[in-house]
Design brief:
alpha/beta; Transcription Regulator spoIIAA; five-stranded mixed sheet
Length: 120
């Protein structure tokens, strides 16, 4: 399990890597709690290197999504590894924007002059 983020042009890109199960819940919740205090206008969560997510971790991501909405931030999911893709397509495709690549997600989140799109 590895959690990292970077902020580029006011967009936070979160990279998750490895497997995420109940054992990583505390660390994952702490990571997203700290991240919600950072300054950014939109967020893309990249799941290209995730091989396993359990329901508790998905709940943590959805809780972060709710916090983003409360702060008027857009959040999208991108580059979902085929191993976990079904978890999002079957349950959350109506709530979350899901993109095939990180580049597509960033393009969606930014428009001319770096004004951010926030649509819910």
């Amino acid at each position: 399990m590895k959690l990292t983020y970077r902020i580029e042009d006011e967009i936070c890109i979160v990279d998750l890597e490895g497997g995420f199960s109940q054992e990583e819940t505390k660390e994952t919740k702490l990571f997203f709690a700290r991240l919600s205090d950072e300054v950014f206008k939109a967020c893309a969560i990249n799941l290209s290197k995730v091989i396993f997510l359990d329901s508790i971790i998905i709940g943590t991501i959805m809780s972060f999504f709710r916090k983003c909405r409360e702060k008027q931030r857009a959040m999208v999911i991108c580059a979902i590894n085929i191993e976990v893709q079904w978890l999002f397509w079957n349950r959350y495709e109506d709530l979350l924007k899901i993109f095939e690549t990180e580049e597509e997600a960033i393009t969606y989140l930014t428009i001319t002059n770096h004004e951010l799109v926030v649509s819910y």
